[in-house]
Automatic annotation (TrEMBL):
Keywords: ATP-binding, Ligase, Nucleotide-binding. It comes from Quillaja saponaria (Soap bark tree). GO terms for cellular component: cytosol. Its EC number is 6.3.3.1. InterPro entries: PurM-like_C_dom (IPR010918), PurM-like_C_sf (IPR036676), PurM-like_N (IPR016188), PurM-like_N_sf (IPR036921), PurM_cligase (IPR004733). One of its GO terms (biological process) is adenine biosynthetic process. HAMAP family: AIRS (MF_00741). Residues 115-223 form the PurM-like N-terminal domain. SUPFAM superfamilies: PurM C-terminal domain-like, PurM N-terminal domain-like. This is phosphoribosylformylglycinamidine cyclo-ligase. It catalyses: 2-formamido-N(1)-(5-O-phospho-beta-D-ribosyl)acetamidine + ATP = 5-amino-1-(5-phospho-beta-D-ribosyl)imidazole + ADP + phosphate + H(+). One of its GO terms (molecular function) is phosphoribosylformylglycinamidine cyclo-ligase activity.
Amino acid sequence: MSLGTSTELSRFFLTASLRSNSQKPRGSQCTFSYVSSRLLPMLGHLKEVGARRNSRNLPIISMSREGVIVGAVSKDAGLTYKDAGVDIDAGSELVRRIAKMAPGIGGFGGLFPLGDSYLVAGTDGVGTKVLLAFETGFHETIGIDLVAMSVNDIVTSGAKPLFFLDYFATGRLDVDTAEKVIKGIVDGCQQSDCVLLGGETAEMPGLYKDGEYDLSGCAVGIVKKDSVIDGKNIVAGDVLIGLPSSGVHSNGFSLVRSVLAQSSLSLKDQLPGGDVTIAEALMAPTVIYVKQVLDLISKGGVKGIAHITGGGFTDNIPRIIPEGLGAVIYENSWEVPPVFKWIQEAGKIEDSEMRRTFNIGIGMVLVVSQDASSRVLESQDGAAKAYRIGEVASNKGVSFR
């Protein structure tokens, strides 16, 4: 995730955030109780996340290796990412502390000087999306997600990916499942025109349950020093160009699973407003933007690029804009995929929470000069859409109008 504000934490960190009633945060309208993992076998008949209920008909808000949180959510209470176990502010604070020890950290990719070029590296995983892969049996594309999260980070500097390394960890190796996952990694590397250089398969009995695995990966690319995209020459009035996402991508799944838990629909049901099931919509692989972004950079005028991951619009766009400037986003300037409309409605999620958690239909934002914006928008073809979604403003922060 590079040491930025991406805070789609692993299920191990989710365990540490489970709260009892006495630790309920102020303002929460949820009632929780904790069920020990010893009781999990009793819940074995509850197959689908969307249908999970305990004996008091309370929705299961979250599950972890250590137990289950069950609770009743007020009909008037909207879900938040923090309630689902992920604290974006805490992640940002950790980055600030690490930056004191290792100055220069905080970008989407890390730059290492090499002659007249920079090697650019990024690392990430796929977050709790793997839990839905276990539940749905969709293992063929999770590897694409893994590659995408790293190569999309390093291309924000203008770097062309060179190679990728993966790490596949499991309790008991299921060769057929692992093959499906790694095939997705190979597909992702082909899409980003980089080499799968190697990786590690770790079998760790006792750490993962049967059928479970986790993934991480690292991508390394290269860019000439005089071609680095760093946002330093961005000025007020520059244009924000948004590239569409395929859906949720690989961030925000802790909140997605909380929505599923309180929804009346299951993963097998058709997505409201869509022509696929909820499972198919949620498991759609992350778009790999490498070729499209490098093509747009070659046209000239690209000043900054933000990968919209954990932190959404609110936290990621300011990372590439000079101090003192901000951004205005034009609402309704792009097509929002039906999956986000369902997530917001089913979870009663506030607009501000959606914008800080999800990409809401835009997976990459380019800051370009006004002249370049015309070239970008006029040259797009049907297979690679781009939208004018806003502009750089003289006021700090990200606002919507």
